[in-house]
Amino acid sequence: MGERAPDLLPESAADGRPFVGRPVQRVEDLRLLRGRGRYADDVALPGMLHAAMLRSSVAHARLRGIDASAALALPGVHAVITGADVARACGGAVPRVPLRLQPLECMEPYRQPAIVADRVRHVGEVLAVVVADSLAIAEDALERIEVDLETLPAVADWRSADSGDCLLFDGTQTNRGVTFRATRGDAAAAFASAAHVQRERFSMQRQAPVTMEARGVVAEWLADGERIVVHGAAKVPFFNRRACASMLGIDASKMDFLEGDTGGSFGARGEFYVEDFLVPFAARHLGRTIKWISDRREDLMTMAQSRESEAELEMAFAADGTILGVRGTAWCDLGAYPRTNGLIQPRNIPQFLTGPYRIAAVDIASHVLFTNKGPAGTYRAPGRFETALFCERLLERGAQALGLDPVQVRRRNLLTAADMPWHFADCSPSAPPSSGQTETDSGDYLELYERCLAEFDWVARQARQGRQPDGRYHGIGSACFIEGGAAGPRENARIELAGDGRIRLIVGSTSVGQGLETSLGQIAADALGVPMSAIDMLHGSTNLLAEGFGSYHSRSTVMGGSAIVDAAGKFKAALRELAATYLECLPEQVELAGTEARSPRGRAMSFAELARHESIGVDGSFANHHHTYAYGAACAHVAVDPRTGHVELLDYLVVEDVGRAINPLLVHGQLIGGTVQGMGGVCLEQMVYDGDGQMLTGTLADYLLPTSTDYPRIRGLTFEAYPSPINPIGAKGAGEGGTIVVGAVMVNAIAAALREFGVNPVSLPLSPSRLWETIEAARSTVK
Amino acid sequence: MKVRFTVNDKPVSAEVEPRTTLSLCLRDHLRLTGTHVGCEHGVCGACTVIIDGEAVRSCLTLAVQVEGRSITTVEGLAHGEDLSPLQASFRRHNALQCGFCTPGMLTTAHALLTEEPHADEARVREVLSGNLCRCTGYIPIVHAVLDARVAYGGPAWTGEAHAHHGDGEQR
Ligand code: FES
Ligand code: FES
User: Fold this and answer.
1) B143 at the A interface (CB within 8 A)?
2) Fewest beta carbons within 10 Å, which of A376, A640, B39, B90?
3) How far is it, in rounded angstroms, from Cα A565 to Cα A577?
4) Which pLDDT does position B170 carry in this prediction?
């Protein structure tokens, strides 16, 4: 235990030192700690009606008809909107949700309809929208709607989907939507020359991101101008506005998507969901303002789920432990539809399976399969959590088979500064702007792994493994990772001098709870040479900027921050220009000091005085098609009780180099929070569907999240040894690293603890009952 | 029916139905939206408020049950514009990210420390285990609560610092 940290830097600090790199306390906290946040359900507008969704209780069915007359007869019910109503209003067909990322043409037949028109494909799919004076009336009305469904056999797992016995989409020949393939070098030759080939079959359970705030939308109808304002938007408001307007058949300028506070995203919240169309549709239909807030069960059913996959993989080794290649196949169960970003997990699996290692030959295919389960999307570390586990387990087992220390094998194969930039395998197919090609930016992965081992006291702990007097078995494990971030194509920022002399900063990045106002405020204050408190920041909403891209792929700080740096340069030039007129000197002679402009002869004007003469507004942007790669390593020390399958985490250390930490406090928070979230996916969490496609985990008492007693001992260290050369700040997208590596390091530690039982954990979750079964199975084969 | 009670030291009344929950009454009738609803079935703790000193889930409490009682919500923890010592400790320790769980964490911790200013780490973890947070991993929240004990007459905290920063040199 070290000594107390010095108090954090207040945002009003004016000690002349840069804000970037220091632990500035969060600006957002002042409202969030006092209950003054504005989340979706906090929006209340005059004359607002309430919507409730009638959802399918079966996974696969043909819709024969809906009779809403009894519901419509209920006093206070304004409308019951069905697929037929939506189709009629939208030119004959129900509009379908577009793909935001990897919009491949072959996905066309699989896109999700906004409401069931003729076929139900998962439990929870919307059959009708009820709008009423109150939520209570709307919910009563739901029970009076009669639905005639012809139940069809459910396709509840990827194997039956792949058999093609029951095709889920008309006009297709297969439930296999697309196959991604990543290739590099000559895999066949690598395997032919191998001294050892390690084969494993992995499986990963379906997980749910579970933001603590459920989804919600308030669509405000402005009769004057026939405009719709959507409150409660998050993550990618500009894309969502385009998607919604085009589905409604109106011009995007007729809509605005306003961002408030967001109770978490983790990749899922803020993507475009069908309700983001249905509620504005209903608002236009009735000419009224309408609110819809998801309850927890609806949210578990319909918020994008992720990670469900299996993989059959092999890794080729030379006798000295050099990894020569990896190859194999993965199958990803995407549930009913690809949604806006569901293809990211299946496409990341083949490309990023090699992680931080110098593996020259790759040939991996990844199949996308549709089933009658909740539609998938991204969840923090999509495809990366999965592949870190696959890769590290193959490495560890291969090393053991060769009689080598897995730590030595990591050392031999980790990329170093001399390998940069390292080209990953190319992945295809790929839809623009993604090219399917990517390379690392900077770093020395080996150096940081060594640091992690040293900080963890790896060598000393090795001796303490195995059976303990209390009957438990101790084990330690390590693993390494890379974290891709900062996706392009672009981000925008605008800086204005307001009438009162204050600086208005507007960014296209969005806040999903990660402290964006603070980190971007730090960057802006430094770039402008003013205290943070001189700046008012606005972000995300579509009424602020012509275009913005938002927060995904750990991009908002790097992309938004770089756009701010660009805008700040232009803003200072404009200020000098303006001040020169009044200070009677040349623009380049104007000195900007804090919120004042000075001439060489000692005359000075405050920004407030300048603002009285003229306002200033400049736009900046940052475009980038390369990715940043933060990287790191982790070590875990566990105690496993073979009598119960219970795993206690005794110590955990994760280290990450993020290039440049804008605010070390926030980066550290992401690292620890992401680790615990991932830990839930390793030990507790599992979305369970039965053979009929019924979801059995419909409450937070069934879908178990980590609590405050589960993982008290987790430490994190952030490094800034290798700034990214591809943006002016040097920062790398961070926030997913803690999650990426946790599955890999935990299976290695648990396997080490249970070494004498010969346990090889290759499927998640490692819940006590599952682990106990694995131990028992291993024991009986040993006998 | 009409229900009268005290919220954050102010007498209030609201016209509610027998089935109206306290969380709905606070949020919709009284527009105190600091109390959040994360599950509506007693699992997440986001809706926790303090009723006569006791931390209670407002989603499982009916508005009519609090007739005549005294309630503290997150809006009532600070007096004036300054953060309360507990809130300030949350800020110092970066104990919130998205902030959705925060009102429930604060009310639960405030009720605990008022009763038990000497609560140790294990006790704090146990009491907070009924409140879910998806962002922070709980560690900074536990630290913030332990560090705030001194303001309630408990011990000063000598635990570890919040931000752990590697000392790697920049190249
Ligand atoms: S909303 Fe009351 S416990 Fe979750
Ligand atoms: S801070 Fe987001 S749920 Fe706790």
Assistant:
1) no
2) B39
3) 19
4) 40
Question: Ligand 2, atom 2: nearest CA belongs to which residue?
Answer: B98
Work out the pLDDT band at B165, boundaries 50, 70, 90.
low
Ligand 2 centre from A391 Cα, in Å?
Answer: 31
Helices (H), A33-186: 69-72, 83-89, 135-142, 158-163
Prediction ipTM score: 0.95
pLDDT of residue A320: 98
Specify the pLDDT at position A556: 82
The CATH topology of domain A29-37+488-623 is Aldehyde Oxidoreductase; domain 4 (3.30.365)
- Which of B59, B134, B170 to probe the A interface (max A CBs under 10 A)? B134
Mean pLDDT of the B124-137 span = 98
Cα-to-centroid distance, B36 and ligand 1 (Å): 8
Nearest by CB to residue B87, choosing from A33, A655, A712, is: A33
Q: How do the domains of chain B map onto residue ranges?
A: 2-76, 85-152
**Contact at CB, A212 and B92, closer than 8 angstroms:** no
Residues A576 and A592 sit within 8 Å (Cβ to Cβ): yes
Q: Does residue B59's CB lie within 6 angstroms of at least one atom of ligand 1?
A: yes
The per-residue pLDDT for A7 is 55
Confidence at residue B28, expressed as pLDDT on a 0 to 100 scale: 96
Q: Is B106 in the pocket of ligand 2 (CB under 6 A)?
A: no
Task: Compute the nearest-CA separation of A10 from chain B (Å).
Answer: 10
Mapped onto helix, strand or coil, the DSSP state of residue A282 is helix
Report whether residue B157 contacts ligand 2, using a CB cutoff of 6 Å.
no
Per-residue CA distances from A273 to A42, A164, A240, A514 (Å): 20, 28, 9, 22
Is the Cβ atom of A548 under 6 angstroms away from ligand 2? no
A-B Cβ pairs (cutoff 8 Å, strict):
220
CA angle A744, A750, A752 (to 5 degrees): 100
What is the spatial distance between Cα A489 and Cα A477, in angstroms, rounded to a whole number? 38
A39 C-alpha to ligand 2 centroid (Å): 13
The domain B2-76 having CATH identifier 3.10.20.30: the answer here is yes
Inter-chain touch A672–B99, beta carbons under 8 Å: no
Percentage of chain B exceeding pLDDT 70: 93
With CB atoms and an 8 Å threshold, state whether A41 touches B27.
yes
Query: How far apart are the C-alpha atoms of A619 and A616, rounded to whole Å?
Result: 10
Cα separations (Å) of A783 from A325, A756, A777, A779?
35, 12, 10, 6
Tokens in use for B159? 């635990």
| CA distances (Å), origin A654, targets A93, A481, B20 | 51, 10, 46
Q: Is the CB of B99 within 6 Å of ligand 2?
A: yes
Q: Average pLDDT of each block of 10 consecutive residues along chain A (783 residues)?
A: 50 82 93 96 97 98 98 98 98 96 95 97 98 97 98 97 96 97 98 98 98 98 94 92 97 94 94 97 98 97 97 98 98 97 97 98 98 97 97 98 98 98 97 90 97 98 94 98 87 93 91 88 95 91 84 81 95 96 95 94 94 94 91 98 96 97 94 98 97 97 97 96 94 94 98 95 95 92 62
Rounded to whole angstroms, how far apart are CA atoms B35 and A304? 26
Q: What CATH class has B85-152?
A: mainly alpha
For residue B59, the ligand 1 atom closest to its alpha carbon is 2
What pLDDT score was predicted for residue B160? 61
User: Is-contact A28 A517, C-beta < 8 A?
Assistant: yes
Contact flag A664-B158 (C-beta cutoff 8 Å) = no
B101 lines ligand 2 (CB under 6 A): yes
Q: Across chain B, which distance is largest between two alpha carbons, in Å?
A: 70
Across the interface, whether the CB atoms of A264 and B166 are under 8 A apart is answered: no
Number of C-beta neighbours around residue B159 at 10 A: 15
Annotated domain spans of chain A: 29-37+488-623
